[in-house]
Amino acid sequence: MRLIIPTFLLLATCLRTAVAAPLTIITEHSPPASMRGPDGVITGRATDKIREMMTRTGTEYTLDLLPWKRAFLMAQTHGQTCLYSTSRTPDRETMFKWVGPTDEAEWQFWGRADHSFPLNTLDDARKLRIGTYLGDARDEYLRSRGFNVEAVSNDLVNPQKLLLNRIDLWAVAIRNGASYPGHPDWSDKVVPLMVFHRVKVYLACNPSVPDEQIDKLNAALAEMRRDGTLTRIDRKYDQAAK
């Protein structure tokens, strides 16, 4: 019996350590949700929400900004790693444990202001060349439905391709309060044409993250929604965009 009790104590200590393990949190450059400021600090609408969740739960974490495809792969393959802002789709449901939603987004088709083709329904885009972002949910969504997609590793290449008539449409994700997603010089040449889908976005965590930790983060987010913190963060960035 004297040998058994220390064994149980050691096991309990290990379990507590696993639950309290720091998180590696990653995101992409996607203003105003996530971006690196002039001082090098990662900020943004979604980032502020994530940081507040970590503070309220006493979670230790590191935060880094990476290209989306690399970040998405890391969240799938690295333990204790979470990624935001991630669209929650049926294909991804079992890949991650989910905290959220932290925000909502519209998926829009953007095109040249002088486009000549009709675009009233999603099916109208079936024969058109659609620029997408490699590894993104929009690319997966359209590709799986048989659309003619051309993926690039840098999403801001797509408006340039539009202006050169190398694609007909650009599939864009616009989150609440977001401004024009491209360069200001293109704002009168590349314009939104149609909303083709709406999604909610989350903090997506590797399955190795304990359920208890996920539950605490979701509870903190629910409290932030009740006490008005989420609304205050959204208004902060809405006002900054004006």
Automatic annotation (TrEMBL):
Residues 1-20 form the signal peptide. Keywords: Signal. Residues 24-237 form the Solute-binding protein family 3/N-terminal domain. This is Transporter substrate-binding domain-containing protein. It comes from Duganella flavida.
